[in-house]
Amino acid sequence: MSVIPDAVPEGRIYHWLRWQTLIWIIACAFMLYFRWAAIHWYSLPDTDDNMRMAQVHALLNGQGWYDLRQYKLNPPLGFDIHWSRLVDLPIAGIELLVRPFAGTAVAEKTAAAIAPMLPLWVAMAAMGLAVRRLVARDSFAVAAGLILCCSSAMLMFSPLRVDHHGWQLAMLVLTIAGLADRNTMRGGLTMGLSSAVSLTIGLELMPFLVIAGAASVLRWVWDMDEAARLRGYALALAGGCALGYAGFTSYASSVARCDVLSPVWLSAMVTAGVLAFGLSYLTAANTRIRLGAAAIGGAFLVAAFALVWPQCLGRPEQISPELASKWFNNIREAKPLYTQPWTTFVMVVALPVVGVIGSFWTAWHARAQGRFGAWAPVALVSLVSLLLVLWQTRQGPAAQLMAVPGATALVWYLVPKFRNSGSMLMRTVGVVAVILLVSGVAVPVAVDQFPAAPVTARSKAIGRANARCATLPALAPIARLPATTIFTFVDMGPRLINVTPQKAIAGPYHRNGDAILDVHHAFDGTPETAHAIMVKHGATLLLTCPNMSESTIYRSRSPNGFYSRLAKGEKFAWLEPMPLPAGSPLLLWRIR
Fold first, then answer.
1. Residue 379 pLDDT > 80, yes or no?
2. According to DSSP H, which parts of 448-548 are helical?
3. Which regions form coiled coils (predicted)?
4. Beta strands in 296-438 (DSSP E)
5. Using CA atoms, how far apart are residues 528 and 214, in angstroms rounded to an integer?
6. Whether the predicted model's global pTM rises above the 0.90 cut
7. Residue at a domain's end among 301, 318, 335
8. Which residues of 462-479 are buried (b: 16+ CB within 10 A; e: fewer)?
9. Which sign, positive or negative, has the C-alpha torsion 373, 375, 378, 383?
10. How many independent structural domains does the chain possess?
């Protein structure tokens, strides 16, 4: 069976989109059902989700559109977060709609539950477009099912995951849909606009977008008829980034910053757009000439960036070596995937490996039908995605989604082969085996057959502390106290400022680096050092969560440091214990 589609009648497009929307609604219903308890207790899964809600609260309470300074962390100065208001819009909109009917608390929970599922529809619709163009007209349902099997990616679309990654993933899939579009100008415009929106939100998926852009250029090198796609991409990328900068870049990011769509990356994207636009008008019939021109343009772009913005050639966070060693290098998602437990490694890479195999196999067989140019960029993006996830665990969701077109092609080709077999056993077992293996559903089952690592008393205690300390019941007594500044763990900061009127010192954000180091110096240093740092920040209370993951770092790194001595029960004259309800997982002191 061919995996290359016939032309799609325009009148049928909305027919498949209705079915795609129905699949999305069913998936959302299941996610809401399984996450209902977490929604009820407003158990946002990550520090970034709490910070996002805190930013939305500030916006709804009158903070300026271009003022992204979070004043409840590191008071009274606050710190400028490197995010965008773009993702705040759907959250704030839902909250404003619900608040008059159900009150603020319910409105917040509703917004946090619904907003993350909206980009899932965009991702499904965009993937449906991509596979209809690449595989077959009716393969959208297979692609939707495979998206639901992307375990890492689906976490980014689940209720309460209000951070910006879901929207970035949706824009990445839309970029692939543009690559696959037979209407070259429309495809290029789609690619450029989706890339610009993603960059306006954040730079996390920059490597994927660079590869997609490079694939578009190489496609033009291969086939001059792709000039319109390259031209549309160039115009939309440059113009979209300019509009994104004008509409969403904060005051603090309007200077030369490397971690956001600042003048640094705006100039780079506009220059890239101008170069690509110029290349699209090169009429040389010789492929080598076009390849040479593309290489010269790429070299000029890289050289100009290095000369004008040399400070941005390294880490975009621009953090100090001390901050990297004490904090950033301990972030799990920033580590290479091969440093994670083998079970995590296998479950994340299973689908990307299948996607690479499927996309390259299909690209090879598509040559006979003149569709190699459509599949080759998808295969390239799929391969680079697999390599990127080995570099950083946080790239896992994108790598899984980029595997869906190739995996869909495999399912679409192999299932009919088994289904048409003369053996009933082959028809049954073969089809089931293909679906289980290609989708990766069989991987968790296989992993469960191996004995799990023994659960120790220490790991149980850490798990209990992580689960309990940030809950609403645990923080309710803290919320009832008069508003003040509380010195606490870095990872407790965003949750504390989101669900209580209190202020904190630090959150896990690189622009908050000096405050992060102050927290580490306090807990690692002597009691005298800790007291001086707390007084410097105007903190009146000290809040800890014994056995929370962050606390184990201080205890293992500084066994004679302030926190280790405090955790062992040592008393200090400048700390006065304050009562909390029986069974509270937290400890609270007044700082004298």
1. yes
2. 457-468, 472-479, 493-499, 513-524, 527-536
3. none
4. none
5. 55
6. yes
7. 318
8. beebbebbbeeebbebbe
9. negative
10. 2
